[in-house]
Amino acid sequence: MSGSSSATDMKKVVQQLRLEAGLHHVKVSQAPADLKQFCLQNAQHDPLLTGVSSCTNPCRPQVCSFLSSNEFLGFSQITFNYPMSIEKKN
């Protein structure tokens, strides 16, 4: 039984080696130059370099407003900004 298990394992190893032999390999000395070129070509699309407009930013602070239904608190409008802070608007 261990012989068939060993043969199966060897077939898997051979299959993996064949797969890896067909891959395109890049020299270690060439990889940084390729990476730099890629970064320079795509810099205009990188939001970390170009910034994100406030209307499309998914991480902008969320605002929730309660209008005059909260007049019992003495405010005409309460705005909650997250993280939690309260602004009083009269």
From TrEMBL:
GO biological process, alphabetically ordered: G protein-coupled receptor signaling pathway
Alphabetical keyword list: Cell membrane, Lipoprotein, Membrane, Methylation, Prenylation, Transducer
Domain of life: Eukaryota
CDD domains xrefs: GGL
Domain G protein gamma span(s) in chain numbering: 3-67
InterPro entries: G-protein_gamma, G-protein_gamma-like_dom, GGL_sf
Keyword Cell membrane in annotation: yes
GO cellular component: heterotrimeric G-protein complex
Subcellular location: Cell membrane
UniProt GO MF annotations: G-protein beta-subunit binding
SUPFAM superfamilies for the chain: Transducin (heterotrimeric G protein), gamma chain
Gene3D superfamilies: Transducin (heterotrimeric G protein), gamma chain (4.10.260.10)
Membrane topology: Lipid-anchor
Family of this protein: Belongs to the G protein gamma family.
Function: Guanine nucleotide-binding proteins (G proteins) are involved as a modulator or transducer in various transmembrane signaling systems. The beta and gamma chains are required for the GTPase activity, for replacement of GDP by GTP, and for G protein-effector interaction.
Subunit composition and interactions: G proteins are composed of 3 units; alpha, beta and gamma.
Protein name: Guanine nucleotide-binding protein subunit gamma
Originating species: Chinchilla lanigera (Long-tailed chinchilla)
